[in-house]
Every structure is written in structure tokens, then in C-alpha cells.
Amino acid sequence: MVNDHPADRNDAAAPDRWREAGDRIETLLDACAAGGTAARDRAEQLLHEVVELYGAGLARIVAALDEPTAELLAADDLVASLLLVHGLHPQGVRTRVGAALDSVRPYLGSHGGDVTLLGVEDGVVRLALAGSCRTCPSSSVTLELAVEEAVRAAAPEIEAIEVVAAEPDSDPSVFSADSLFTRVRDAAPRTGSWIAVPELAGLSPGEVGGFSIAGQAVLACRIGTELYVYRDHCPACDNSLAGAVLHRRMGFPVGDAVLRCPVCQAHYDAVHAGARVDGSGHLDPLPVLVRDGELSVAVPAGVAG
Questions:
Q1: E-assigned strands of the chain?
Q2: What are the residues facing 210 on neighbouring strands?
């Protein structure tokens, strides 16, 4: 006999259903408001009681688990979100924030930068963020998007993220983050969207592919295990980079990778923020993160490199 339980038939669609659950709940609460304030209050109280009931049951389950099993369950995005809601996640805030920062270090490193966790106290995460090209406002915006998104996804209970001054850098092309976030907000509103692009996972090491993300043409490449994404635009000749391939420069170590424009032959360092290696200028990088189990790219709005 074939087991055709409804839950089995819906497994493939489950991630999307859970991601949209919060929106559906809010929509239902708004619909209750049509019956007046009292009706919405009753609906919210009912939701609160149900959440408390399931939270109490979840707490008993977690208490009965050994540490490895609890850690394994917490690795699932849906389970982790439920544990966080009820304050039951096996990892502390500092551990989760540290892991989140580790996840964005390859992207920060592509800008010649890094991030240091200084501490977590009273709901405030304090960071020292260094690096980023002084002449590229989109680079600064996407750095902020990457760091803040990663931290808030791992620790939604935090109240604020503070960035303190890093040690000054003698290189005039690099500024210390004495406050990167303030600098970005002063320059332009931080707007943008994280777009799921699961197709990026199909890129093989050394492969370059073109994608359209929210109407924006981008070029993505995999170098080793890391993914790098840039706007599909060569600043040297103002043409598309379609057809570009990765090259290793003679005499450089394994892992070196440059993108060569198929039109003007300009070369860009694909690992280090797309800096041009045979002239001035650079490509426009976009951050890549795993969000809700899917590879996603941040596309800031109204920012040009």
C-alpha cells in the first residue's frame, strides 16, 4: 500500500508555507478587526494562548533531548525560529551572532575587510567593521545589508546593532568604520531587497553564469566553495560582461581568479570586490547569503557603483 498522507504530499511546498505563515496570521488578525476592536483583541488573546500552550509543550520536548539532538534540531530553520520565539534555542545569542558573522566573512573579505564581535549586552550587538572601498557607495550599502541581515536572522531578539570605530588604515582607498552604518545612511537611504536565487547553487567551481534578479542583470561565479555576484556591467567600456570567463594570472597562487570583459578585455579581481587589475575602476558587487535555507542576493535600490 502506498502511503499518501497529506503531509507527505506537501513536503516540497512546506518551506514556502512556513515562510509566509507570519503574513497569513497578520492578515487573519486584520480581518478580525473588521468586527471591531473587541473582536481583534479576542483573536490576539486566542493566538497568545495557543502559542503559550505549544511553547510549554515544546519546552518539555527540548528538556528531554540530549545536547547533540537539540543542536541537530536547531540547525533546521523552522525549528530554530520556534525555539527562538520561546527562548529555547540551545545556543546563546553571542554564539549565534558569531556564527552569523562567520557566514558573511567571505563577502567582507572580498572587500578587504572584516568584522569583529565586541560584545552583546542588554540586547545590543557591538561590532567593529573595517574595510570597503571609499569610492563605492553601493559597496558600503551592501556590506551593511549583509552584516545586519545575517545578525538579525540569527538573533531576532536583539534590539540594536552598534558599529564602533576600527583602527585607522594608512591606505587612502580604505576607510575605518567609525561608523559605516552612519556613513551609509548619510549618503543615501538604505533600501533594497533580498531575492532568493536557488539557481546559484548549480554553478560549478570555476563557472560563470548570467542571471536576472528583480530585473537586474547580474554575473555570478563560483571560486572554490564561495559564490561571488556582480552587476552585469563593465565600467571600462560600459558593456555587458556576458561571455566573461575566469582566468588565473600567471605566477599567482591557486585561488586567484580574474574576470575578463569579452568586449574591451579589461580584467577584474573576482575575489576582491571586482577591483580592476589592469587599470582603475571596479565591478559592482552584491552580497550572497543563505536565507531561510535558500541562496539569496541583496539588490539595493537606487544605488550605482
A1: 114-121, 124-133, 160-164, 174-176, 192-196, 208-213, 216-223, 226-231, 245-247, 258-260, 267-269, 285-286, 288-291, 294-300
A2: 219
For 33-80, the pLDDT digits (tens) are: 777 888 888 888 888 888 888 878 888 888 888 888 887 877 777 777
- Please list the helix, strand and coil fractions of the chain in percent, rounded to the nearest 5, in that order: 40, 25, 35
State the chain's maximal CA–CA distance in angstroms: 74
Neighbouring C-beta atoms of residue 203, cutoff 10 Å: 17
> Given the DSSP bridges, would you call strands 160-164 and 124-133 parallel, antiparallel or unpaired?
parallel
Find cell 531576532 and name the residue. Answer: 156
Strand partners, 102: none
The C-alpha torsion from 130 through 197 and 25 to 62, rounded to 10°, is: -70
Do residues 143 and 284 make contact, with C-beta atoms less than 8 angstroms apart? no
> So what's the pLDDT on residue 165?
54
Cα distance between residue 297 and residue 241, in whole Å: 19
Burial call 233-246: b when 16+ CB within 10 Å, e when fewer: bbbbeeebbeebeb
Q: Count of alpha carbons within 13 Å of 218, Cβ hemisphere only?
A: 27
Give pLDDT, residue 142.
60
Q: What are phi and psi of 105, to 5 degrees?
A: -60, -40
Distance CA 131, CA 260 (A): 25
| pLDDT tens string 77-109 | 777 777 777 777 777 888 888 888 888 887 777
- The string of pLDDT tens digits covering residues 188-224 is 344 457 788 989 999 999 999 999 988 889 999 998 8
Cross-strand pairs, 290:
295
Residue of 149, 77, 102, 94 whose CA lies nearest to 296:
149
Q: Which residues pair with 161 in a beta bridge?
A: 125
